[in-house]
Amino acid sequence: MIQVLIADDHHVVRRGLLFFLKTQKDIEVIGEAKNGIEAVELVETLQPDIVLMDLVMPDMDGIQATKKIKAKWPQVHILMLTSFSDKDHVLPAIEAGAAGYQLKDIEPDELVNSIRQIIRGENIIHPAATTQLEETLREEENLPHVKNALTPRERDVLAELTKGKSNREIASSLFVTEKTIKTHISNIFTKLDVQDRTQAALYAVKHGLTEGSEIQ
């Protein structure tokens, strides 16, 4: 069972999420928080697998709560569930340690799939947020030394990772073993100084590293 904590200051939103998630055989909602402070306290008590975190909440917002949770319990996944798709909200959320970023207008089934994908270690960012990021971040200057630091194969892996593919899917695409992909991803994390797949994908978009070994 995937144990979920819901953190949102709107009672109606929490009730709606609870109602739908209770119908899933592999998901269990183990707690609810109406602000960031309660979310941090409940994570300490309940140790959920994933937190559905609202971005704007009283007392402590989702960004602050995410930073505190990831600093103390890095194994807990955070999925931001919000109404904001602009870079001023998306980037801080990912940098704080969120493994995914979804908008509240997504279909319930898509939300459930996002939860399962994040538990499997995949990165999930809503298309609207991704588009906004790409348009904004590509305006920044690329870093040639970062490109050169990655081997051609690592750039291939990063390009596939940015598409949201799992280790197994990347291994199949590049005709190597899944173990080899895990090694490449570990090296990529170290060279880019990122902590997870979502941060690596954002870094790739930000610095023009999304086209695999074709990058010169």
TrEMBL record:
4-aspartylphosphate: residues bearing it: 54
InterPro entries documented for this protein: CheY-like_superfamily, NreC/VraR/RcsB-like_REC, Sig_transdc_resp-reg_C-effctor, Sig_transdc_resp-reg_receiver, Tscrpt_reg_LuxR_C, WalR-like
Ranges where the HTH luxR-type domain occurs: 143-208
Domain of life (superkingdom): Bacteria
Keywords from the named record: DNA-binding, Phosphoprotein, Transcription, Transcription regulation
SUPFAM superfamilies named in the record: C-terminal effector domain of the bipartite response regulators (SSF46894), CheY-like (SSF52172)
Residues in Response regulatory domain copies: 3-119
Pfam family, one: GerE
Protein name, as recorded: Response regulator transcription factor
